[in-house]
Amino acid sequence: MRCCELKSDSRRFALIALVAVVVVAAGALAAVLLHGRGGGGGGGSEGPALLVAGRDWSWSALESIERRTVSGNEGFSLSALVNASGVSEPSAHQYRLLASDGYSKNVTWDDMLEGVVARVVDGGVSTLKSIFPSLPKRYSVRGLVEIQPIETDTLRVCGRTYTWEQPFDTMLELVNISGVEGVRLSDLVNHTGVAGPEALNYTLRARDGYNKTVSWSSMCSGLLVLDGHRSHFESLPKAYHVRDLKEIEASPAR
After folding, report:
1. Domain count, the chain
2. 3-state SS string over the chain?
3. How confident is the model over 238-253, as pLDDT tens digits?
């Protein structure tokens, strides 16, 4: 009987040891995934690593990238990092910034030209964060682990490029006119900083070339609508509801 008890205890101890090994291994794997990828950038144990367009960057490799200060924070130029990662025609893409917890934001190449990635300490853990001087704080992606070039889905307004989400993502006030929700086209134009907007006309151009030109007064009452990527004018014919909008171009009013 005693022999059977000893065998049972041995099995129990072996099972406990196996579970302990699995827990430790899982913790080690999680730490590797969170704190660094290693690989092409030169190893992940030395600090946070970042995957950019399929290339792995360790902290020591990031040190070779141009530095600049943005909003009081020193970091590495995001555009220089993309260029160093070998992205072909970087201005032809927009970029998805992905955090370790799955949070993500899309930005334009113009944003990347202004932005940096900086090292921060969060809860005693070193991590990376994106910083953009012209975007809301929610675009400061903490725990940044990957930057992906993606197909462009942008709107160019008076020389400035936006992702389609940006005007609606707390950048501008959402309004509702007769059940249609959007941001005022005049607010969007003012956000670009164009001078003398009231003295200009505005051509709204779709991706297929279709276009309509309106005055500043129409822009003040018109909306940019996310659904259908279109313009909406309550007081103009439906022909002015330009869908799949690609560009809003300003020109002197005649």
Report:
1. 2
2. CHHHHHHHHHHHHHHHHHHHHHHHHHHHHHHHHHHCCCHHHCCCCCCCCEEECCEEECHHHHCCCCEEEECCEEEEEHHHHHHHCCCCCHHHEEEEEEECCCCEEEECHHHHHHCEEEEEEECCEEEEEEECCCCCHHHCCECEEEEEEEECCEEEECCEEEECCHHHCCCCCEEEECCEEEEEHHHHHHHHCCCCHHHEEEEEEECCCCEEEECHHHHHHCEEECCCCEEECCCCCHHHCCCCEEEEEEEECC
3. 999 999 999 999 999 9
